[in-house]
Amino acid sequence: MADSRRQFTTELQTGVDPAEGVHVEPAISTSGLTRRFPSGTALDALDLEVYPGEVLALLGPNGAGKTTTIRLLNGVLLPDAGRARVLGLDPTVEGNEIRRRTGVLTENAGLDDRLTALENLESAARIRGLDQATARRRAGEMLERFAMADRADHTVQGASTGQRKRLALIRALLHEPEVLFLDEPTSGLDPAATRDVINLIGALAAEQGRTIVLCTHFLGEAGRLADRVAVLNRGKLMVSGRPHEIAATMWQGLTVDLDLGSPLDSPAFEAVAALDGVLELDPTPTGARLVVTDRDAIPSVVDTLVAASLTVYALTPRPPTLEDIYFAIEERIAAERVEWEARP
């Protein structure tokens, strides 16, 4: 099974430098990073790079190794093997300096219920080394921006789950970290609060160019925010890269839905199927679904349909979603596991 997984990782891993050929030192890099617990291996020889200004979604089910990775990168846990660098620093010996330059939002907000929102933020800022005046000013500014100013003088005990998440995110940002680690930032939130937190994270990435590692098993939020994704499974990195690059290694062609208002008739079906660049064609109740080599094949499909006196109401490319990619990886892992276990 280990050999099979290693081959799968080699086939799919891309890890392309977003600087497009220009040498840029990674904000985060790991090589063979491993952590074991009595219950098993939580992280198994992780090789990963995250570049400045990137949003990396670290995906995987509960127990995949996402939280362990964050703790190792911040020097909270020590590895059993391998190495890591965060902003050029070694977490095993320079953890305090790393934590001064990074922000962490944990799944459990960890706020003090006895203190007000402002007091929680000010105390956290002072621990990070900010003087009292700067801590109060930044806390006030962030509470205003995150629509929490009206909660400044209220104890956290009465705050909703969404308000707690926003406060925890503010706390992680007060000292203006260069790298932000977000561990399941929307867990336990209702849809409206989830939308608010995702919008805030997206704004941070877009406006400030901050390096963000987003650990989640919610694929929708990862698809909205991430420049690149990395998928962990039982502590192993299965794939990393931009979603469209990963998809290109897993599927041939581009899926396109045709809305013609009725099923594609036989002569038109045969004409479209015979076109260069059309790889697959299947009828649907309102037209057809086809797979083409790329977008350049689409105009000839439309021309053929119009020549057959058919009305094209809509033609919609359907590139694989992050959900498609993730579950395809999971299915392949499961299939390989069954094959391995079936060996004599």
How would you sum up this structure, described in words?
It is a single chain. The chain contains 12 helices and 13 strands. Strands 5-6-7-3-8-9 form a 6-stranded mixed β-sheet, sandwiched between helices. A 4-stranded antiparallel β-sheet has the order 11-12-10-13, covered by helices on one side. It has a 3-stranded antiparallel β-sheet with strand order 2-1-4, with helices on one face. It folds into 2 domains: about 1-110 and about 160-250, Rossmann fold; about 250-315. The chain has helices at about 1-10, 65-75, 95-100, 115-125, 130-145, 160-175, 190-210, 220-225, 245-250, 265-275, 300-305, 320-340, and strands at about 30-35, 40-50, 55-60, 80-85, 100-105, 180-185, 210-215, 230-235, 235-240, 255-260, 280-285, 285-290, 315. Helix content is about 40%, strand content about 25%. It is α/β, with parallel strands linked by helices.
Structural descriptors:
24% strand, alpha/beta, 13 strands, globular, 39% helix, 344 residues, disordered N terminus, four-stranded antiparallel sheet, Rossmann fold
Give me the CATH fold name of the largest domain.
Rossmann fold
List the uncertain runs. 1-19
For the largest beta-sheet, the strand count, sense and barrel status come to:
6 strands, mixed
**Structural class per helix/strand content?**
alpha/beta
Architecture of the largest domain in CATH?
Answer: 3-Layer(aba) Sandwich
Envelope shape: globular
Measured between the Cα atoms of the first and last residue, the distance is 13 Å
Counting DSSP H or I runs of 4 or more residues, the number of helices is 12
Q: What is the topology, as strand order, of the major beta sheet?
A: 5-6-7-3-8-9
Mean pLDDT: 84
Give me the strand/helix succession: HEEEHEHEHHHEHEHEEHEHEEHEH
- β-strand percent reads 15-25%
- Please name the fourth-level CATH homologous superfamily of the largest domain: P-loop containing nucleotide triphosphate hydrolases
Radius of gyration: 24 Å
Q: CATH top level of the largest domain?
A: Alpha Beta
